[in-house]
């Protein structure tokens, strides 16, 4: 029997404020915009809202570079708006979760300003400063060969002190030194401030990077095209991570608060279980990245790779089974503000197949064991940026830095330019950041002004107003998924998971089991008919009701133990 918790039965809606809804006509989404759409969010049937960072920030990395944890980025609104939003969310019986970004701060944060001001500063040791190394010519070099996720070395030289500071992301995002207990106390202070204000928990940015191996060894060479190498082995799930997370967990427990930690670079379930095991008192759940890496090529994220059905099956089933058997918990997601749109990535976004695809993926995700996360626009089947986007359309630091580095190293070869731009259209984070498509009016009803990032040209067809009015839309399908999941928590929330017909290369099928019910989810990932045989051991001889279908398999029809013809991208759920 799985242990029950309120947050296990929740579904979460993620809001990327700048791209959600602009209330005051400056082209930037804001908190009052969010407030104006709470009815829409609630009608979808979610229980919790996660807001990406809305704190004061120079916005080098869209708010993941915070310069004041207690105040709000003015274009998004004010601290009072957050209070009002929290209250409005609570009035609707929902919860509100904020983003806690404490692996690093902005370089404009007063802590870092003080830290860099002098070697003697009280704040010097709040960040990670190291002396240079020297090459054979006596030239000063970064302390080691670690790469930054946004290009170049993970170390930035500071002229004034002759030392380097660590930044795993942009150089404007210096890493905090968690070894220093005053830093940990400062983080506790931030957490308590927002929890006391009534926030229900946190999504914790790259939380498994907070403890580093403090001797900073060189990383093994895994990328032959660069001097800078991935050092994750020395900072992902580092030596003191669980000590730190346990202290965080104690605070969360006091407030009965929710937490979801972001954990890139770790695909080892036993490692993750140390953070999310029910008896560990650390985090509620984590986001792993194993599915997100399936289309990243050997030369990094912006090189191609084709994922295979067998890989999808083995990754999903691995996490499903281990978390269930070992009393951990899964965070289920296919999209967020860093990832391309799922219909474009895991299915087919061509107009003919888009709605079917979005429903197929909703079925795929929504009946697994774990807590479901939906990213704004996913409930509409929003797609990746259009094919005519040029480099000038992009806003994201990761893509723009990659392009600058690409031009500097690869030069002017047009063929490789085209290939790289095609990779951005597949995987740039901006695919998720185009404005939410509310209706068919100018700028998709997102704003009365030109938005900070281009609206997708398909908005006259793909928008919320049209879908809310259409009972057969992706939006209403998602609402059904969330409702059905809740109507039968024993099997859909807490039940065990088994892959069905594991070797099938076209159909992803899985069953869920509780002591009283069995459910079967059947998903044809191909845009053509395939034949598929019902497994003999599941419902044979008994009636199994069709609970949900993205075609018209009628509800309450029984499906016999036979070979079926599945329609292109067909998805259905049986319950017996
Ligand atoms: O992302 C961390 C992370 O590892 C990625 O998802 C990241 O976007 C990817 O490695 C780039 O290829 C988190 C936030 O979600 C992201 O938006 C921030 O940029 C990043 O941390 C730094 O705070
Ligand atoms: Ca605005």
TrEMBL record:
Cite the Glycosyl hydrolase family 13 catalytic domain residue spans from the record: 14-433
Show the InterPro entries listed in the entry.
Answer: GH (IPR017853), GH13_cat_dom (IPR006047), Glyco_hydro_b (IPR013780), Malt_amylase-like_C (IPR032091), O16G_dom_2 (IPR045857)
- Give any GO molecular function from the UniProt entry: sucrose alpha-glucosidase activity
Q: Give the keywords, sorted.
A: Glycosidase, Hydrolase, Maltose metabolism
Query: From what superkingdom does this record's organism come?
Result: Eukaryota
GO BP term (any one): maltose catabolic process
Protein family (similarity comment):
Belongs to the glycosyl hydrolase 13 family.
Name-wise, this protein is CAZyme family GH13
Q: Which organism is it from?
A: Penicillium atrosanguineum
């Amino acid at each position: 029997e799985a242990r029950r918790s309120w947050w296990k039965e929740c579904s979460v809606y993620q809001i990327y404020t700048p791209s959600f809804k602009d209330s005051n006509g400056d082209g930037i989404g804001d908190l009052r915009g969010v407030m104006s759409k709470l009815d829409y969010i609630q009608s979808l049937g979610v229980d919790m809202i996660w807001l990406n960072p809305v704190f004061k920030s120079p916005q080098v990395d869209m708010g993941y570079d915070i310069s004041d944890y207690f105040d709000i980025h003015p274009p998004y609104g004010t601290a009072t708006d957050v209070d009002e939003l929290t209250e409005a969310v609570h009035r609707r019986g929902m919860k509100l979760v904020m983003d806690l970004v404490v692996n690093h701060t902005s370089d404009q944060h007063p802590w870092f300003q003080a830290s860099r001001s002098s070697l003697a500063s009280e704040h010097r040791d709040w960040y990670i400063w190291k002396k240079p190394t020297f090459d054979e010519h006596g030239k000063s070099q970064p302390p080691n060969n670690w790469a930054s996720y946004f290009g170049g070395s993970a170390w930035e030289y500071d002229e004034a002190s002759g030392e380097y500071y660590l930044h795993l992301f942009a150089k404007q995002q210096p890493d905090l030194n968690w070894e220093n207990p005053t830093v940990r106390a400062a983080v506790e202070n931030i957490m308590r401030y927002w929890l006391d204000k009534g926030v229900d928990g946190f999504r914790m940015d790259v939380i498994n990077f907070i403890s580093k191996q403090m001797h900073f060894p060189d990383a093994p060479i895994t990328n032959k095209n660069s001097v800078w190498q991935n050092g994750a082995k020395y900072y992902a799930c580092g030596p003191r991570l669980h000590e730190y997370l346990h202290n965080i967990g104690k605070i969360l427990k006091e407030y009965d608060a929710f937490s979801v930690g972001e954990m890139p670079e770790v695909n080892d379930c036993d490692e993750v279980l140390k953070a999310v095991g029910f008896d560990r008192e650390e985090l509620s759940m984590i986001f792993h990245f194993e599915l997100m890496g399936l289309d990243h090529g050997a030369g990094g994220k912006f090189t191609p790779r084709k994922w295979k059905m067998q890989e999808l099956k083995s990754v999903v089933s691995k996490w499903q089974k281990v978390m269930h058997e070992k009393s951990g918990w899964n965070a289920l997601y296919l999209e967020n503000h860093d990832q391309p749109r799922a219909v474009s990535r895991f299915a087919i976004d061509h107009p003919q197949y888009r709605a079917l695809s979005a429903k197929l993926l909703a079925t795929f995700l929504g009946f697994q064991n774990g807590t479901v996360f939906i990213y704004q626009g996913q409930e509409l089947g929003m797609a990746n940026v259009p094919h005519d986007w040029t480099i000038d359309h992009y806003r994201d630091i990761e893509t723009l830095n990659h392009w600058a580095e690409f031009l500097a190293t690869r030069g002017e070869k047009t063929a490789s330019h085209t290939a790289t731009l095609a990779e951005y259209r597949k995987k740039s984070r901006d695919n998720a950041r185009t404005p939410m498509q509310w209706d068919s009016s100018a700028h998709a009803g997102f704003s009365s002004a030109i938005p900070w990032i281009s609206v997708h040209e398909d908005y006259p067809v793909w928008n919320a107003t049209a879908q809310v009015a259409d009972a057969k839309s992706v939006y209403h399908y998602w609402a059904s998924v969330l409702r059905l999941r809740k109507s039968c928590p024993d099997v859909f929330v807490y039940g065990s998971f088994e892959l069905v017909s594991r070797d099938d290369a076209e159909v992803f099928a899985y069953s869920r089991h509780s002591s009283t019910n069995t459910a079967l989810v059947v998903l044809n990932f191909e845009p053509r008919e395939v034949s598929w045989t019902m497994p003999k051991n599941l419902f044979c001889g008994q009636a199994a009701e069709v609970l949900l279908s993205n075609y018209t398999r009628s509800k309450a029809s029984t499906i016999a133990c036979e070979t079926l013809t599945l329609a292109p991208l067909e998805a259905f759920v049986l319950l017996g």
